[in-house]
């Protein structure tokens, strides 16, 4: 049996959110006592919690979530340990990727998920330099992930790194966690999103699968 490691934060009403984001609503609309069954209403933004960004997040005519084949969201992965760095530079990216076998996903372990629930989580988190982002985007990969809130620094309203990757339809997975519990390589990564028509992004239950 494969070992599965959950790399995602739970969605709940009091969860940490990017400043200005509406909190999720989880509301019981039918109850077992009254209706004989329980049913709930879920309401949350497309980039709530552990989620992925599709090209439609940035580009007017970008591809939305449901237009990708489901294989886009699964494949072999590696983790690059950046937990001692204030930024992820070109040297780090090239050094980590120079002898790669075929990988579909590159996950960056910054260690920033330890601040989940703290205001610091949204400040000074490590991101790829633009040179490193351009190098990574030149590789034949399906997506990248990070255990921080964004691939662009707080205050970068141009979303430079997002554009570098999403224009090549390399999906971005943000707000991962528990990357320290997964192996550095020789595992599969799954980030299947909710299949919502026209979605610019969607929450995902992300997993490392070790066979």
Helices and strands in order, then pairings?
Blueprint: E1 3-6, E2 25-30, H1 32-35, E3 39-43, E4 51-53, E5 74-81, H2 90-97, E6 105-109, H3 130-137, E7 143-146, H4 160-166, E8 171-174, E9 187-190, E10 201-203, E11 207-210
Parallel strand pairs: 5-6, 6-7, 7-8
Antiparallel strand pairs: 1-11, 2-3, 4-8, 4-10, 5-9, 9-11
Features:
211 residues; alpha/beta; Glucose Oxidase, domain 1; nine-stranded mixed β-sheet; 4 helices; 11 strands; 24% strand
Description of the molecule:
With 211 residues, this protein is of the alpha/beta class. The protein has one domain: Glucose Oxidase, domain 1 (3-Layer(bba) Sandwich), CATH 3.50.30.50. It has 4 helices and 11 strands, in the order E-E-H-E-E-E-H-E-H-E-H-E-E-E-E. It has helices at residues 32-35, 90-97, 130-137, 160-166, and strands spanning 3-6, 25-30, 39-43, 51-53, 74-81, 105-109, 143-146, 171-174, 187-190, 201-203, 207-210. A 9-stranded mixed beta sheet has the order 1-11-9-5-6-7-8-4-10, covered by helices on one side. Strand 7 (143-146), helix 4 and strand 8 form a beta-alpha-beta unit. Helix 2 runs parallel beside helix 3 (130-137) and helix 3 runs parallel beside helix 4. The protein is globular. The mean pLDDT is 95.
